[in-house]
Specification:
- The chain is an alpha+beta fold.
- The chain has one domain: Molybdopterin biosynthesis MoaE subunit (Aldehyde Oxidoreductase, domain 3), CATH 3.90.1170.
- 37% of the residues lie in helices and 35% in strands.
- It contains five helices and ten strands; from the N terminus they run βαββββαβββαββαα.
- The strands form three sheets. The protein has a four-stranded mixed β-sheet, sandwiched between helices.
- Strand 3 and strand 4 form a beta hairpin.
- Helix 2 packs antiparallel against helix 3 and helix 3 crosses helix 4.
- The two termini are 20 Å apart.
- 22% of the residues are buried.
């Protein structure tokens, strides 16, 4: 099972990435695609852009480690995670998560797991540019709560229910 993890400045083409993941494969029965897009407002206030910073090398390794965990939890046939960094304007894509499996349940669960990790544990720092000023974005409790569902007994119950 293949996995692709990339961090890049330039926008990506979600359709082309999906085609690359599935090209020549007849064993894949489901692909779940999540594309995160830069909103034009943060906490109700308009923004000009987001700037995402990361620790090169460490960020890729951490994402790859969580992709491996997803592969061990669910019967995946392919995974692609692309995360942008640098200045990103409203309407531009930020992140792409593709998960492929024989059946939809595994693909959906793995995509949610990976996005919850990316929102809470991936080593990225987000700065908002608005009204001529910049500010760093704080972690959100709601994102942490969503990620907690994948630990311990909650994860086992969810996995058992999917099987």
């Amino acid at each position: 099972m293949g996995a692709t993890v990339r961090l890049q400045r330039e926008p990506f083409d979600a359709a082309a990435e999906t085609a690359a993941l599935t090209r020549g494969r007849t064993d894949i029965g489901a692909v779940v695609a999540f594309t995160g897009i830069c909103r034009g407002a943060e906490d109700g206030a308009p923004i000009a852009a987001l700037t995402l910073e990361h620790y090169p090398g460490m960020a890729e390794a951490e994402i790859a480690r969580h992709v491996e965990e997803a592969q061990s939890r669910w019967a995946l046939l392919g995974v692609t995670v692309i995360h942008r960094y640098g200045r990103i304007a409203p309407g531009e894509p930020i992140v792409l998560v593709l998960t492929a499996s024989s059946h939809r349940h595994e693909a959906f669960a793995a995509a949610e797991f990976l996005m919850d990790f990316l929102k809470t544990r991936a080593p990225f720092w987000k700065q908002v540019e608005a009204a001529g000023a910049t500010s760093w974005v704080e972690a959100k409790q709601s994102d942490d709560s969503a990620a907690e569902r994948w630990s311990g007994a909650a994860a086992r119950r969810r996995r058992d229910a999917a099987e």
